[in-house]
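Table S4 entry, Ribosomal subunit interface protein.
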Amino acid sequence: MQIPLQIAFHGLDKSDAIEERVREKVAKLEQFSDRITGCRVVIEVHHKNTSHLHKKGEPYHISIFISVPGDELVVKRDPKDVNVNEDILIALRDAFQTMERQVRDWTTRQRDRQQKQAAVS
């Protein structure tokens, strides 16, 4: 990756364990494409009240932005059901599974485009 991985926490404290899990997930994405130039991951909790206390059970919102040549792949997991993604590890797993499909699809499209161009030449 040309640009260092960016991880942001909003509405919750920074966690070294969660950062390490995100780094592992991003490394796995890089196995599917060596053309990833940057990645930004945002982990958020939207509080329903104005209190600064974190209420147990509030869903985690995960956004992943992957930069590839000429494009940006985006996954935003904003659950509408308050019972969804109460566990941050499950929220991360689900978001990264969706991003993995996008990276694989993008890689396949790029390979197909290159093959068509080679066939025309």
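The beta strands are 6-10, 38-45, 60-68, 71-77.
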